[in-house]
C-alpha cells in the first residue's frame, strides 16, 4: 500500500505538470491566439474538476485522502488566474470568473427545466441521472462563488506582500496561495458536506494535499515568469470602475504608478512636478481653512565645489543621504520634495513660523551630524509660513527663497525665518551653527 500511495503522489505531480504546461503554453501564445484560447481551455476543465472533487479520491501517504479535481485542477486554476493578474490585470481575471458563474447558473436552470420532460430511454437499461446533474450544478455554482472570493483575496494578499518581499516572486506567490487555498478548502468542504455528507478526513486531507500543490505550482509559476515573461505588459487605456475587478485593477495600477512616478529617481523624494501640483493644493487648502503651513527651502552649501572636488558619484551619494536625513527627521505627515539640483522643499502643515524654524534647525543639525557631514556638507535654509507671510504658493516660495539667500549671506549652515505679525515690522529669527 505505501508504494501505491507514493505512486499516487507521482501521478498527481504528473497531472499538475501536464495541466500547467498546456495552459502556460496557451497563455504564452495569447498575443497570437488571443486570451480566449487560454480561458476556454481553463473553463472546459471546470466540470471535470467539480466532478472529481465530489466523487473521485485517492490515498496518499500519512493517511491523506485527496481528490485530483480539488488538489490539482482547482488549485492550478487559481494559480493560473494569479499568473493572469501578474502579467495582465484584475479586469482580465474577471472574464473567466463571470463566464463560469453565469454558465453554471445556466446549467442549474436548464437541469431544472429538463426535469419537467418525460424522457424516453435510449435502451432499457440506460436512463439520464438528472439528480446527479442537479448536485453537480449546485457544487459548480458554489465552487465558482468561492473562486470569485478566492480571486479577490489572492490579488489583495499578493499586493499586500509587496511591501514585505518586493519583487521576490516565489515567497509572495507561495504565501498568498497557501493562505487563500486554506480559506478555499474550508469553504468548499462546507458545500461538499452539505450536499454529499463528506467526513472530516476529506477536509484535512484535502488541505494537506493542496498545500503540496501550492508548493509545486508556486515554483512553476515563478519559473514561468522568470524565464518567459520578463517584460511587463502595459495597461492600455484608463480602467472604468464597473465592478470589484476593475477596482482592483485601478488600485494596483494606481499604487504602482505612484510608486514609480512623481518621485525623484535619485533620492526617493517627491519631485518638482508633485510640488507644483500637490504643494499648491496643500497651501491653498490651508489658506482657505485658516491652518498654518510652513515651507522650508533647503540648499546644500557649496555643492558645486563638492562635486568638482569629489566627483558626481560622491555628490549623488550625498544627495541621497541628505534626502534620507530630511525624510527621517520631519514628521510623518510632512512632504519632502526635491526641487532641483541640490535644493529640497519641505511642506509642514500645522506648523507656525516659530515651530517651522525649530524644525529647520533640527534638520540642519541632523544633516551636519550625519555621515555626509564627514565631508563638511551642510545646508542653509529659508522658511516661510502661510498665512502670516503669504497666502499663496508663489508668494510663499518667493519669501522662502529670499530668506535662503539671507542664510547664505549670514555665513551658511543656518536657518532664517520671520514672524510677520506686521509685514512692515518683521522679526527675523536666525539659527546659526557655532
Model description:
By secondary structure, the protein is of the alpha+beta class. Helix 1 packs across helix 9, helix 5 runs antiparallel to helix 10 and helix 6 runs parallel beside helix 10. Helix content is 65%, strand content 11%. It starts with a helix and ends with a strand. The C terminus is likely disordered. The relative contact order is 0.08. Strands 4-5-3-6-7-8 form a six-stranded mixed β-sheet, with helices on both faces. The chain has two domains: 247 residues, no CATH class; 171 residues, Alpha-Beta Plaits (2-Layer Sandwich), CATH 3.30.70. The chain is elongated, with a radius of gyration of 32 Å. The protein contains 15 helices and eight strands.
Characteristic key phrases:
disordered C terminus, 6-stranded mixed sheet, 11% strand, alpha+beta, 434 residues, two-stranded antiparallel ribbon, Alpha-Beta Plaits, elongated, 2 domains
Q: Sum up the overall morphology in one term.
A: elongated
H-E order: HHHEEHHHHHHHHEHHEEHEHEE
DSSP E strands, number: 8
**Order of strands in the sheet with most strands:** 4-5-3-6-7-8
N-to-C CA distance: 84 Å
